[in-house]
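Retro notes (design track)

What went well: tokenization of the new backbones is finally stable.
What didn't: we kept losing track of which sequence belonged to which structure.
Fix going forward: every design gets posted as structure first, then sequence, in one message. First example under the new rule, 217 residues:
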């Protein structure tokens, strides 16, 4: 049986190097975690949350799924958010998409991919509600990139509308929601400028309930 020994030796090396750089690192970490950030990102192996933003274990609470979606009834994502906000008291929620997202690409294709099509239906809905805007993007690459951006903006909107975030804002707990996108080709993050820090800010950023897009989008 292949027991993936290479990964275990990598692990021992990593634990050793980390402990060398910061003595008692793991012992201290074992007592508690107090991350300031919740990361909601794509499962894509090329978008490793901690590495991208240079944060150590204990500094970033992470939820990842295909195409970084925040679905109103997804108990998995909502549970992560509730724990992050109510217990860990994170101050920032970062929704981070990435250009060239396989989930977004697949959502634009006609053929069946299996069960995942039901999940990707959420992106197809976004596509459908931005048809006029998206018609301007003639080639597949720029259309995909634009849809990746729009997807992040919508997921920021969804985060803001969860009971978890609404209740936090209601009791004046400081929670700011951010929308970022990551470039796999250059390793750089881009802020999509849809930062929402509370209920007043929400009204400023999003136009109205019927077409919930930030003003400049
Ligand atoms: Co992706």
């Amino acid at each position: 049986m292949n027991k993936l020994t290479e990964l275990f030796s990598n692990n021992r090396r990593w634990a050793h190097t980390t402990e060398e750089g910061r003595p008692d690192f793991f012992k201290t970490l074992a007592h508690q975690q107090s991350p300031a950030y919740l990361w909601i990102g794509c499962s894509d192996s090329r978008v490793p949350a901690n590495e991208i933003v240079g944060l150590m274990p204990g500094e970033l609470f992470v939820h990842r799924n295909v195409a970084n979606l925040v679905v109103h009834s997804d108990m998995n994502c909502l549970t992560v958010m509730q724990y992050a906000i109510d217990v860990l008291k994170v101050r920032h929620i970062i929704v981070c998409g990435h250009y060239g997202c396989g989930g977004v690409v697949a959502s634009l294709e006609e053929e069946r991919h299996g069960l995942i099509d039901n999940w990707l239906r959420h992106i197809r809905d976004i596509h459908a509600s931005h048809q006029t805007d998206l018609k301007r993007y003639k080639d597949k690459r720029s259309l995909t990139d634009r849809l990746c951006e729009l997807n992040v903006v919508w997921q920021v909107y969804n985060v803001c509308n969860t009971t978890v975030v609404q209740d936090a804002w209601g009791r004046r707990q400081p929670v700011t929601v951010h929308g970022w996108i990551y470039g796999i080709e250059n390793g750089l993050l881009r802020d999509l400028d849809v930062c929402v820090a509370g209920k007043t800010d929400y009204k400023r950023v999003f136009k109205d309930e019927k077409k919930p897009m930030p003003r400049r989008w």
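Added context from the reviewer: Residues 1-31 form one domain.
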